[in-house]
Amino acid sequence: MSIEKRVIKKYPNRRLYDTATSSYITLEDVKRLVLDNVDLQVVDAKTQEDISRSVLLQIILEEESGGSPIFTHDVLTQFIRSYGQAMQGMMGPFLEKNLEIFGQLQKKMQEQSRSLCSDGNGWNANLWGEYMKLQAPVMQNLMSNYMEQSSSTFLDMQSRMQEQTKQLFSGFAFPGFPVPPVQAEDSNKK
């Protein structure tokens, strides 16, 4: 049995209408639904076109414009450079898997933190603040190592794919491409 998505309609006047509550909502409300793990779909009220991605991107843009952005200039330029490249189709699943793993790591940390606080061992707000200050560098180091490994794995996969492609097409002569050295020697003997 599949659960239906919560439908939000976007009208030409840019207002969002939540069909589940029969009321108008804001972009902040949509963000809150996402944070509450509500599966939703935003549709254009006039054309019925699914515009969920553009609304989600709008939320990300507003978050990035605020306090402390997640994406650096370099990350954003890499995203742009990925479009139209041969590996573009692999970028989405790669990022999706990494975010999934990050979410699992975050959930595990939250569970450990809750169990630490619920033991009744006298943790107060000051102690908790100190604990979190110590955890930030540890998490940053852990994520840095993970990203290095992911990057290395991705580059290795890309390199192997290039080699396999070269091997696959090495027997074909394509105009404008150099003949591999083995074939050049064979053609000189004839």
Detail the topology: elements first, then pairings.
Layout: E1 6-10, E2 16-18, E3 23-25, H1 27-35, E4 40-44, H2 52-65, H3 73-82, H4 88-118, H5 125-169, H6 181-189
Parallel strand pairs: 1-4
Antiparallel strand pairs: 1-2, 2-3
Specify the biggest β-sheet. 4 strands, mixed
What class do helices, strands and sheet pairing give? alpha+beta
Tell me the helix content.
55-70%
Number of strand segments: 4
What can you see in these coordinates?
Pfam families: PHB_acc, PHB_acc_N. One of its GO terms (biological process) is regulation of DNA-templated transcription. InterPro entries: PHA_DNA-bd_N, PHA_reg_PhaR, PHB_accumulat. It comes from Craterilacuibacter sinensis. The structure is a single chain. The chain is an alpha+beta fold. It has a domain at about 1-70. Helices cover about 60% and strands about 10% of the residues. The chain is built from 6 helices and 4 strands; from the N terminus they run βββαβααααα. The chain has helices at about 25-35, 50-65, 75-80, 90-120, 125-170, 180-190; strands spanning about 5-10, 15-20, 25, 40-45. Strands 3-2-1-4 form a 4-stranded mixed beta sheet. Helix 4 runs antiparallel to helix 5 (about 125-170). The protein is flat. The relative contact order is 0.05. The model has no long low-confidence stretch (mean pLDDT about 80).
